[in-house]
Amino acid sequence: MPFLYFPEDKSEYIPAAITMTIFGIVAILTFVLIKRVSKKQEAKTKELEEQINRERQNEHL
Questions:
Q1: CA–CA separation, 61 vs 57, rounded Å?
Q2: 3-class DSSP state for residue 6?
Q3: pTM of the model
Q4: What is d(CA 53, CA 60) in angstroms, rounded to the nearest whole number?
Q5: In a designed cystine with 7, which of 12, 16, 48, 61 is the match (CB 3.0 to 4.6 A)?
Q6: Interatomic CA distance for residues 16 and 8, integer angstroms
Q7: Phi, psi of 52, rounded to the nearest 5 degrees
Q8: Pair 21, 27: CB distance under 8 Å
Q9: Cα dist. 38→24, 25, 28, 29, 51 in Å?
Q10: How many whole angstroms separate alpha carbon 18 and alpha carbon 26?
């Protein structure tokens, strides 16, 4: 069996193309989900930081 195999019947590419498409879509959805969660965490962190800064300013007064 040669190192690279290029089938004569091009219909053998269909399962591989379907699998690659599915994994590509899942990868994109995962990336979008991670970005959304990251934005939510960033907003929570910023809010907590502002709260801590306000408390520190009140302590110094």
A1: 7
A2: coil
A3: 0.69
A4: 11
A5: 12
A6: 15
A7: -65, -40
A8: no
A9: 21, 20, 15, 14, 20
A10: 12
Side-chain-facing half-sphere of 7: CA atoms under 13 Å: 7
The one-letter code for the residue type at 10 is: K
Residue 9's φ and ψ, nearest 5 degrees, are -85, 105
DSSP 12-38: GHHHHHHHHHHHHHHHHHHHHHHHHHH
Q: Is the Cα dihedral 31, 34, 38, 40 positive or negative?
A: positive
Q: What's the one-letter identity of residue 13?
A: Y
Distance CA 6, CA 27 (A): 27
Place of tokens 């004569």: 8
Q: Please write the tens of the pLDDT for every residue from 44-56.
A: 999 999 999 999 9
